[in-house]
Amino acid sequence: MILPLGISIPESPLVDPKLSSIGEDFCGLDVNTPLGGEQPVTAVPVLTFNTRLTAVVATSTGDFTVVFIGTNTGHLKKVVVESQTSALEYGDIVVEEKSPVNQDLHFDSQLMHLYVMTARKVSKVKVQECTVYRNCMECLGVKDPYCGWCSLENKCSLRSDCQDAAKDPLYWISYKSGRCTTITSVIPNQLQRTTARTLDLVIDNLPSLSGHFLCAFTALDKTLVTNATRKGSGVNCTTPRTDSLPSIPPGQHHFTAKLSVRMTSGPDFVATNFTFFDCNTYSSCTQCVSSSFPCDWCVDGHRCTHDTAENCRNDILVTGVSRAGPSYRSGPGFCPTINLTVGTSPEILVASGIKKGIRVKVHIIGQFIVQTRFVCQFNIEGRVTSVNAQLLGDTIYCDPMEFSYSSRAPNITATFAVIWGGSKPLDNPDNIHIVIYRCHDMADNCGICLALSEKYECGWCQSSDRCEVKEHCEKGTAVWLNRSETCPNPEVTSFSPELGPWEGGTNITIRGINLGKTFQDIYTGVNIAGINCQPYEHLYLKTKEIVCIVDGPGTREPRQGPVTVKVQDYRGESKGHYKFVDPAITGISPRHGPKSGGTALHITGEYMNAGSNIQAFLEDLPCKIVSTDQNQALCITSASDNISKKKLRMKFDKGDRYLENMMFEYVDDPVIESAESGVQTGQIKFPKGIPAGGIKISVTGKNLAYIQKPQMYVFYEQKMFVSECTVLSNVSMMCNSPVIDEIDDSKLDADNPLKLEYGFRMDNVTGVQNLTLNKEFNPFLLYPNPTFYPFDKAVKYYKSDYLNINGQNIDRACQESDVEVRIGTSYCNVTSLSRQQLTCRPPEAQPPGVDQSGQPNGEAIPEVIVTVGGSLRYNIGHLSYSPPQSLNGPITKPTIYGAIVIIVFILFAFIVFLIAYKRKSTESNRVLKNMQEQMDILELRVAAECKEAFAELQTEMTDLTSDLTSGGIPFLDYRTYAMKILFPNEDDHAVLQWERPELICKEKGLRLFGQLIMNKTFLLLFIRTLESNRYFSMRDRVNVASLIMVTLQSKMEYCTDILKTLLAELIEKCMEGKSHPKLLLRRTESVAEKMLSAWFTFLLYKFLRECAGEPLFMLFRAVKQQVDKGPVDAITSEARYSLSEEKLIRQSIDFRPMTVYVSISQQAFVGGLDINTENVPVKVLDCDTISQVKEKCLDTIYRATPYSQRPKKDDLDLEWRTGTSGRLILYDEDSTTKVEGEWKRRNTLQHYKVPDGGYLNLVSKQSSIYNLSIFSDKNDKSHKYETLNLSKLSSVSPPLSRATSPLNHDHDQGLKVWHLVKHHDSDNQKEGERGNKMVSEIYLTRLLATKGTLQKFVDDLFETIFSTAHRGSALPLAIKYMFDFLDDQALQHGITDPEVVHTWKSNSLPLRFWVNLIKNPNFVFDIHKSNIVDACLSVVAQTFMDSCSTSDHRLGKDSPSSKLLYAKDIPCYKDWVDRYYSDIKMMPVISDQDMNAMLAEDSRLHTTEFNTNCALHELYTYAMKYNEQLTVTLEEDEFSQKQRLALKLEQAHKIMSEAGQP
């Protein structure tokens, strides 16, 4: 017992101690005072124990006294003394079981640990374990006075570890108070997921806290925090936004969130569960109204809802069982359903191929359902079939239909539904379904067929000889056996056993076909060789199997006969015969075996397999039969208690047989005394092995010869590896170490081998198993495999008496007998092994080698092969006994003669060489002098060319800038601009056609389809479905994306939302795939990427017109004007001034600038344009073709006119006005065209000898014909070309052909046309041409001249594009918005590499939008772009792309000139790009309100630009093309199902198809 501590004793009168005669030193010292008295001090125990207490120590926690008590059983008890009369044991710790605790218990200095001593150890015990308790109830439940619940920190701790515990009793709650902070109720305690409201949380013992409360909702790995306000009994807080809540998992209807309350900083201090449900996830009325949530069913709307007022107006309502309050219709009993009739099965059976009408009972509420159209729908193997149905009374009658299926299963289950209102199924709570079956797949013979369940109505059709329903048996006209009739032709297919003893008692199993339907059919009809066989009823398998017992024939004469089975009037007989025989035993082997049993005893004799139950005994000990055949039986002996000889007895059913002249002797069990292998060190013997196995282990013992097949085994990682042993004598045997193939040889340490358990399998002798458990035996040591190194050379020459082979770990586990060395067909006798070398003695003569087939080959060098343990094999190399040919022998005469001949030949060759060299050097000097002269000429030409290029570089810049300032910028209108980018190869696309009468009748269907396109779920599924189809080509993706953007032009807010969703999915897919993130948006491989291009196209048009368009147009004009300053080849488009190496004229062309004065006739004049058309000065070159002159004239005259409004050069002719009235029409080709060999040159101004300052006239084609009549009246003073043309007039046919028109093309066959440069088909130029040409690479300096001239315009364009504020125009919101979106996506996916985000931005805007416009300025301006201008702009575009790249390209002499040209500028441009991206990132985030306002304004401005109906019609063709896959996707998607999008699409199809019919 324990006494109360600190209790005062009440006062009482003094008692005479009767010790007055004793001195104060009675106790030995004067400081001791004797005590005496007759009344003991009494006290009441506060706690008693059943065990003896041996130690006690007490301490205080401040509020309570704590006592630690040791017991004599080794336990330490924890006790808290609560008052003078009560105490509580709250803990019991086992220090050391059954070892008394010493009385010395001591605390450490902090009083946090207690040292406890027992007889053999000292333990340090913590006085408390507060931190192990995870919640308040656990913490206070243990009643540990040290521990309390720290509310603010949400932990169980000491009072001293809880911050601010003294401020409020509720901050740290002790076990005595027992008042945890708990949420007692949440109103409401569950909520529809798609709604939000304020929750009322009632919280008991909520501490007084200063600060802001928060509510946290944690579910599905997502935590959402909302604000909370304190109230008297708890807090109020709102649920999170519905769009931020996690989705309900598929197949479920709710998720439970952890609702916790916390402060702004700190952990949760109280929590409970809160449920979010979604009534919309229920698809049937029965599920909806039976749920545990307040869900109701709208019958006509066919939906489950939580808000009937909003969603079920004017609809019949079935309220849920969980809905509070009265209701007219509540629960699943009011749901429209199909029902079972009483006592019927939910399965409706229909034979395959039968036409049948299904009928079911229904329960329907609401007259509107009765009046609707009903359809029965069957889903057979995924194929949905619908038939009409009629409602008569309370029964639905489905129209008859044929039920069939294609699989080979005996039957299949088809789902069944009754549909009303088009797509609303009646509930099927009883799971009524259709079972379609085929009788012939359920039974392949008559017996089984007639034994089938009666419900299938199957029978045997004798005409087709198969199981059928009656209707299929020749349409009911043939003989058809029903289940009450008997099958003909019973058949016995097999029986066993086929032999039995004369004594009988054999159980015979008979198998066959049509062996009766019931036991009574065959009870008396089984006969074995004329003897009746009695069947067992419990072993009878209908129609298939009979087991019966037959008696013996009664005589010992041989007897045999067939097995017959009689079923009523039919009889079946086996082909084979059953025989009654007399088994006889003739011998056994072996005759000895260990008394532990397990010996495999072979019994020989006759008819050892006779009978059904064969047993063997060694007198009274059973020998378990393992196998039998006619001449032998095998049994396993059982254990014997002693050594003795036993007689063999066998029992064949009722017959016993004995072996009289031979007995089996049980002998003593074998004993293993030692097992060793390898080289032993010292007296300790170890068995050793290697993973390859085969190491010979020598085993000694006793009685080993009595074991037939001894085996050795080793355990490695709890798996047994076994090898065979060979008995040498009664006291020794040899075993091979087991192969351990599941170990990595490289992991074995040769110095510290693995120690494994091993033992022997010797029948059932247990004494030789697991020998390592016996301390007398050492473990099995596993060493790594020995390694042998090949010879240093392919062939080793044998010189000495012994052969040494090097290796590693050779003798760790092996000895000489474990290693075999073969040399060809012979052996090398192994004489010694060491750790790193094997020594063997080869045969005296070289043995023959072995060919690939293993046959001896005397001519082959023998190969040395080392084999360890029989399986580990090393090819060492080839060994030759013959030494290599020596060079130190005597020199023979043939050798001397050969050397003399070689020396003479060398001298002769040297003399010939000297003569040839002399002649060659003279010729070379002459050629060298000639080449030197040519090089001098070449250097002079190169110098002149370079000087000319330098002069051009210095003078051209000023001229070009001044010329470009004239004329306005011919911007295309918005519609044309957008169409050129969205549909670049279609001039008159459907979306521009407003007069489409064929679409008027389809307007309703297109409107419905347009509503679907405006549904986010549908549009996303539509795009995903198309992209998932492998036949959806790249061209289709681009077209669909453009059509979608045209359709959504008036809904840019919605369009942007769709684009962001698709881009987010694309980024997610990229991150999950194997492709590098930098490849995102690199190419237009998805609809999203093309939509992004179109999005920027729409939103950056204003920016183009106000800011970026001017420098782009200036660059185009600068390139065109610079190119036109020099010669341009009209055939190849090569030019003297070019940025492209491929389009550079690499020859020196002689040309002369000219100024001609051009007028245009009234017939060719473009009306409405106020321009000067008389004698306009035009700069041309004398080497220009006539077409090039016409182009330059039109460019000059109509400089301020858009290209589309100008006359076309092909509609005009160029006249040269000579003299006062002479006129000559100039052509590129006419009868005066010069032909040289196979080349024909285009006519130029120089060809016609047009002078500088000449007057030219542009006339229309029609007026040029008129000029011919004037031309015929000219006098003799005309130009000489006029005379030439006059002479041609008389031979022209037809009469109105032009005088200088080209010759008939029949004369031009085989001629090549050229202008400035002849391009030969091969690189080999004609003889004589090479000397007149310089090295073409020297003209590459012209690239630098052109680049320098255009540098300012390129810089202006790049600076405008890569500036956030330039030319007074702010950065478009679309760029900032999209770049922020890409930054957010990178952050969301954990991408920290800045180069990845840089690449995303470059791929999305510069490389996707700007590069396209730089290469194709005709997409923005009304201009004409020639081939040479296109080539130059491509170089600028490539430079632009390189500027946006994050990778550094190393350039060398082999790099493309387009990259070398701007190599020094690109680093500067890259800095501009980095600064541009950085500035955009630093700009304030664009609010959704501002962005939406901008998008709405853009939509308003361009709403009527395109025919949306045409775009919808184009999109609809894709919906029709992929309708099947799209419908499946819509039907499988959860959100699509809720919105019934598949039905709406079907309605659109129906309307469109009806509209398309005439």
Automatic annotation (TrEMBL):
GO terms for molecular function: semaphorin receptor activity. It is a single-pass type I membrane protein. One of its GO terms (biological process) is cell development. Belongs to the plexin family. The chain crosses the membrane at residues 896-917. This is Sema domain-containing protein. SUPFAM superfamilies: E set domains, GTPase activation domain, GAP, Plexin repeat, Sema domain. Its main location: membrane. Residues 1-127 form the Sema domain.
